[in-house]
Automatic annotation (TrEMBL), chains A, B:
Residues that span the membrane, as ranges: none
GO biological process: endoplasmic reticulum to Golgi vesicle-mediated transport; nervous system development
Family: Belongs to the TRAPP small subunits family. BET3 subfamily.
Protein name, per record: Trafficking protein particle complex subunit 6B
Function recorded in the entry: Component of a transport protein particle (TRAPP) complex that may function in specific stages of inter-organelle traffic. Specifically involved in the early development of neural circuitry, likely by controlling the frequency and amplitude of intracellular calcium transients implicated in the regulation of neuron differentiation and survival.
Gene designation: LOC107671866
InterPro entries attached to this UniProt entry: NO_sig/Golgi_transp_ligand-bd (IPR024096), TRAPP_component (IPR007194), TRAPPC6/Trs33 (IPR037992)
Keywords for the protein's UniProt record, in alphabetical order: Endoplasmic reticulum, Golgi apparatus, Neurogenesis
Highest taxon above the source species: Eukaryota
Gene3D superfamilies documented for this protein: Trafficking protein particle complex subunit 3
Main localization category: endoplasmic reticulum
Cellular component terms (Gene Ontology): cis-Golgi network; endoplasmic reticulum; trans-Golgi network; TRAPP complex
Subcellular location: Endoplasmic reticulum; Golgi apparatus, cis-Golgi network
Length: 161, 161
């Protein structure tokens, strides 16, 4: 299990290196917005790549909800070593995925003064979900918000094509 | 094992995203050198972090060779899912670690025309080794070269303090 642990740590360390680097490389007026969007795009491509390998031997999904359940269970477990704690939907194309202990936020210290950095720590994962869904034929917009750290919610809005 | 596989893929995808991003962000005269050095520095910090978690329960090492063996076996396996294939030393502070199928090069297509990109694909790992060694009290310079893809050699020169 120590190999496994270490691999999890590898992802966490790499993820924070990327945030730091993107943050320092994007200078200019709207640097914060650009930083978040760069991270989101990286996540998108990684999500596409991962889901392609991951669903090679998975049977077709029967509907949109079935796809979302797969993201919350199998996909989330593969990346974050736990499932999404709560999935809700309005049955009109909006899904809310709640993670009560989101791995990539546990590195960030708790406290209000760090809340402003939260978007940077969520952007990659928003992209990851959007990329995974996209490769499964579901076009979406994914946003995230922190409630009480390290809990957070990802909102998926399905874009009808 | 599919979770495990996916985690390995996650690292590979993230690694290539970082290379692409750093490559595009570093513009200027000596952009290639700067890109390599940024990647090396990221690897260094990730290596430091990983080894700290990884050697928490490991008994002290008896000498430098013992440390190098640990890097070649346990550390390499945790990151790259295989051991170093060959470790050689001149017993004067130079170690050559050969990996006959280096994971982060298998993504890069074979062929002479891609050889010029190889340094970018090795820089992060050079830093990773240097960071790991550094946290184990061994100061070093780590360089790498590709022989026939995806085989490569990492040369560690110990800096006596």
């Amino acid at each position: 299990t120590s190999v496994f642990m270490s691999n999890e740590a590898l992802f966490q360390f790499l993820h924070s290196e990327i945030i730091q680097y993107v943050n320092s490389a994007e200078t200019g007026e709207s640097e914060n917005g650009r930083c978040v969007s760069k991270l989101e795009n990286m996540g998108f491509r990684v999500g596409q790549g991962l889901i392609e390998r991951f669903t090679k031997d998975t049977p077709r999904f029967k509907d949109e909800l079935d796809v979302m359940k797969f993201i919350c269970k199998d996909f989330w477990t593969s990346v974050f070593k736990k499932q999404i704690d709560n999935l809700r939907t309005n049955h009109q194309g909006i899904y809310v995925l709640q993670d009560n202990k989101f791995r990539l936020l546990t590195q960030l210290s708790a406290g209000k003064q760090y809340m402003e950095h939260a978007p940077k720590f969520l952007a990659f994962t928003c992209g990851l979900v959007r990329g995974a869904l996209s490769n499964l034929g579901v076009k979406s917009i994914v946003t995230a918000e922190v409630s009480v750290m390290p809990a957070c919610k990802f909102q998926v809005m399905i874009q009808k094509m």
